[in-house]
UniProtKB/TrEMBL annotation:
Belongs to the iron-sulfur cluster assembly SufBD family. GO terms for biological process: iron-sulfur cluster assembly. Residues 138-358 form the SUF system FeS cluster assembly SufBD core domain. SUPFAM superfamilies: Stabilizer of iron transporter SufD (SSF101960). This is Fe-S cluster assembly protein SufD.
Amino acid sequence: MPTAEQHGIKEHSDGRFGFVPVQTRSDRFKSVNVADFAPVTGREAVWKLSPVAKFTDLTAGELDGSVYPVESTPNAGITVGWVDRDDSRIGTAGAPEERAAANAWSSFDQALAITVSGEEAKEVTVTRAGLGSAPRGAHTIIDALPFSQAVVILENTGDARLTENVEIILGESANLTVVTLQEWNDGAVHLANHFASIGRDARLKHIVVSLGGSIVRVNPSVRLAGPGSEAELLGLYFADAGQHLEQQVYVNHDAPNSRSRVTYKGALQGTGARTVWIGDVLIGRKAAGTDSYEQNRNLVLTKGTRADSIPNLEIETGDIKGAGHASATGRFDDEQLFYLQARGITEEEARRLVVRGFLSEIVQQIGSAPLEDRLQAAIEAELRGTEEE
């Protein structure tokens, strides 16, 4: 979107086109009103790698914003309930940068609020299942009060055509893990934007696990707003034939002495399996002492797949501890396979061991033993699909 005179840059006098390109990631246009965004064409920076023609009902159509059935595990110190649109927390973590998110924001009737309090460790699982095939918009707030500590697991299963926004707010010294698990049915479409604001000395671990669904796009946007804040963003995805799994990650270091680590890992199998990972890290002018690193790794298991991996790093201050990024996409390591086969392991089992080891780095950092066991079993099921092809 055009913006005026960024960093002292003005439009050219030749032609008077009146367009100044966005110069830094934080200057992208934002609005909670869907009417402020032009119709999606697929040529926009945020949509150019997405199959936009397959979900125009979510970007341009009317959405059902009513409340839906939710199940949650009871836990002292965590409340789960619906709040009105005028709740003071709504809009404090971030705002949409694209039309699907704005459509959801304009459409929801009430927001699902998950409030965490108390310094003792606790865990809650919030499950949505069977949202149906009608296009829907939703909004969720996860509010970790100062000094609170918890693991919040968002489980998504069944059918859905859903666009939603999730706001994550961490008060001073809060320690929060948020796991979003996409195990939708094969035809589901899920577009999600997660906005997080991290206060002084607070720590967020954000984990995206995408296994099911036809099109799944989960985009975390994290602002390290308080001094000493920390974010760890992890992702695991396994794309099968014809499946599109996408994640656009944005980390905004907006305070001094903040730290971030981004690690996303994915595997692809089957004709037409497609994954997209874009990682943007911005170290702002106020973020002296920043320590940041992002990486994306993709393992190609069969022919006919495509993985796009685009890391980006912007630094506006020279006073940092460190910053870097890395990206790699490749097939099995022949030396690893040879090593395992030389010790009497069959080629089939050797391949499974390599993939399990590759993805287990993410699974083991979730911090919920039952969920980790479930995901290991789900990965095994995906690998059995590889053997059948």
